[in-house]
Amino acid sequence: MKVYVIANQKGGIGKTTTATALASILAERGYRTLFIDADKQGNSSDTYRADIEGVPTLYDVLLDDDRIPLADAIQATLCGDIVASDPLLRKADKILYDDVEGLYRLQDALQNLKGYDYVVIDTNPSIDAMLKSCLIACDEVIIPITADRYALQGLSQLHEMIQAIKRRQNPNLKIAGLLLVKYDRRTNLSKEVKESLERVVDHLDTRLFHTKIRESIRAREAQAKRLMLIQYQKNCTTAADYEHFVDELLKGE
Ligand SMILES: Nc1ncnc2c1ncn2[C@@H]1O[C@H](COP(=O)(O)OP(=O)(O)O)[C@@H](O)[C@H]1O
Ligand SMILES: [Mg+2]
C-alpha cells in the first residue's frame, strides 16, 4: 500500500482538485484506492458527496475518546471509498498535541488498514498537527504549485516541516515532486518564476513533474457542481493532464 499526501500551506492552490483527480484516476485504473479528507473544510468530502454528520468520520478515528479503526469510518460512494472530514477536526491541534503519541495516531490507523493499493490524503492549507500527522503517516508528498512568485515563496515553511519529520519521525518520507497546476500555456513562465522554480526544486531536492496541469473552466465548473473532474468532463484538457500526471507518477515508482 502506498500513501500519498497532497500538501501546500496555501489555500486555493489546487490541492483538492489534484487529490480527487489522483484518487479517481487510480480507482478507474483498477487500483483499490482510499481517499482520506484531512481538511476540516471538507471540500473533498463534498465532491464525494460523503456524509459528515451521523456517520463515523476521521474525527472518530483520530480524535474521539473512543477511537475506531480507520476501516470502520470508510464510506463507499459512487466516486469511491472515502473517510470523510468533519468540522470537529478543528480540535485536532489541541487533542493531538496533548497526547505524547497523538501525532502517530494516523500512522497507526493506516498500518492496521488492509485491502488497499493506494491511499490519497487531502490536507489543510495550514502547517498544523493534522498536516504533521499526515506527513508522518505517508510515503510521498505531492506539492501542487502555481506559477507565480508568491506561491513559491510560501514553500519554505512546508519544506522545513518535511525536513524535520524526515529527520525525526519518518526517514523514508519522500517529496514525489512539485506539480504545476492551473497552468496557462499562453502565458509563458516569466524568467523570474522559472528561475525561482528551479531554485525551489533544487532546494527541496525534488523534481518538477514534466506534466503541467492546464487551467480550464471545466475544472472550476466540476467543483462547483460537486463532481469529480473525470466524471464531469473526462476529455477536457485538465482531466487529460491529470491522466498524464498519474502515468508519470506511477512510472517513477
Ligand atoms: N486546472 C484548473 N483549472 C481551473 N480551475 C482550477 C484548476 N484546478 C483547480 N481549480 C479551481 O481553483 C479553486 C481552488 O482549487 P482547490 O483544488 O479547491 O484548491 P485547494 O484545495 O488548494 O484550496 C477551485 O475553484 C477549483 O475548481
Ligand atoms: Mg482544498
The small-molecule ligands in this entry are: adenosine-5'-diphosphate, magnesium ion
Strand order of the largest sheet: 3-4-2-5-1-6-7
CATH class: Alpha Beta
Give the helix level as a range of percent.
40-55%
What is the end-to-end distance? 12 Å
By helix and strand content, what is the structural category?
alpha/beta
Examine the coordinates and then state which fold CATH places here, giving the name of the CATH topology: Rossmann fold
Question: What's the oligomerization state?
Answer: single chain
The number of helical runs is 12
Counted up, domains total 1
Could you list the spans in which at least 5 consecutive residues all have pLDDT below 50? Answer: none
Amount of beta strand: 15-25%
Largest sheet: 7 strands, mixed
Average pLDDT across residues?
94
Order of helices and strands: EHEHHEEHHEHEHHEHHHH
How does the overall form come out from the CA principal axes?
Answer: globular
CATH architecture: 3-Layer(aba) Sandwich
Secondary structure tally: strands: 7
How would you name the CATH homologous superfamily? P-loop containing nucleotide triphosphate hydrolases
